[in-house]
Amino acid sequence: EFRMALTSQPLQGKKRCKKIFWAVFPHACFILSLVIYAFLGALMFSHIEGNRKVNSSEGYRNFLQGLWSISKNLSDNMTENEEVFKEKIYNLLGTFEHEWFVDPKKIWNFFGSLFFCCTVFTTVGYGNTYPITRTGKYLCMLYALFGIPLMFLVLTDMGDILATVLSKCYNEFRKLQSKILASKLCSVFMCKKESETQSRRSLLMKSKVILNEPLSIVEVLKSQSALKRKPVQYRNAEIFEMLIAREKEYTKLSRTKSIERWSSCPELERGKTMTSVIENFDKIGKELEKLDVPILLMVLVIFVYISCAAAILPKWETNLDFQEAFYFCFITLTTIGFGDTQLQHPRFFLFLSLYIIIGMEIVFIAFKLGQDRLIVFYKKVISFCGEKKITPKK
């Protein structure tokens, strides 16, 4: 028995490790596939857009010609009206294109292309980096067509994890709150009970009533004279105890045999694990639907989450203060992405990609809770209006 216990312990440890691995496998598979998809997109766009030829287009030539003519007129005729000069400069700058004076190899390097891919499948789309070639535009549409569903799948999967964490934290907080209230109420009731018991004891002492404790079952059986004459019943009790002990031994042996069967036939275990993994894939999004926490709590979580990033971001983006960084993080996590705030070091922001995904998931959960609350509100309004119309006028 000691040897079987020793051999069963490492088998149980291996089984636990396998269960943990197959439970984590779907989540790791989604995240890893998104990372590989982003790296492949970065390599593709850096090769296509980074190696494009900067052609001197007709608009670019007209821009330079106009700039040269304005500067020549300014140098030849110093008495020209200032308002006319400003109007010419304004009209000329209206035809300016950003890509005329940009080196594509500097923008479309690996990290710049990776940043662009992240803005594509997260549907942020700042607008400061965009493909110019026709091949790049077509591939961008194809890349977004497959990348956006993959991103939403990762968000849904991580949403289940965050939903379970939030629901457990909220339930534990409610339990702690109820325990504190219960302890306060119990303290009040205990004081009352102690006063009542003291009054009862004083009354019993006055009446001099002696209370005996109830006898146990064995003492009751021993006190019976009929049972003393019949020791066969005691023998039956001993036989019954022996049968119970033997049944426990058989259950232990059956457990060890089942372990040996799983170890001798790994195909059965593999089939069981594969079915559990498939069930884990089918359960994606279930926990998110069950989440029921106050919407104000989610708003507070979003505020704290964005504030932490807004305090860190100005460390390397010196052109941003706390308020602008807070605005930039909010616009990013809500996938609005105006592009009015540009980062000087976008590759540093890539290190916060996990922060962006988790933040988008928190905002998505908040929007989901707000949507559910709005649906409940609309149902109440419609039922209230329907009841008013149904009720007859007196």
TrEMBL record:
SUPFAM superfamilies attached to this UniProt entry? Voltage-gated potassium channels
Q: Tell me where it resides.
A: Membrane
The record's section on Pfam families has:
Ion_trans_2 (PF07885)
Assigned keywords, A-Z: Ion channel, Ion transport, Membrane, Potassium, Transmembrane, Transmembrane helix, Transport
Coiled-coil residue spans? none
Q: Transmembrane region positions?
A: 20-45, 107-126, 138-156, 293-313, 325-343, 349-370
Organism superkingdom: Eukaryota
Annotated membrane topology? Multi-pass membrane protein
Q: Which InterPro entries match?
A: 2pore_dom_K_chnl, K_chnl_dom
Provide the primary localization. membrane
Residues of the Potassium channel domain = 104-162, 301-371
What does the entry give for GO biological process? stabilization of membrane potential
- GO molecular function of the protein, one example? outward rectifier potassium channel activity
Q: Which GO terms describe its cellular component?
A: plasma membrane
Can you tell me which family this protein belongs to?
Belongs to the two pore domain potassium channel (TC 1.A.1.8) family.
Q: Which PANTHER family match?
A: POTASSIUM CHANNEL SUBFAMILY K MEMBER 18, POTASSIUM CHANNEL, SUBFAMILY K
The identity of this protein, by name, is Potassium channel subfamily K member 18
Q: List the source organism.
A: Tinamus guttatus
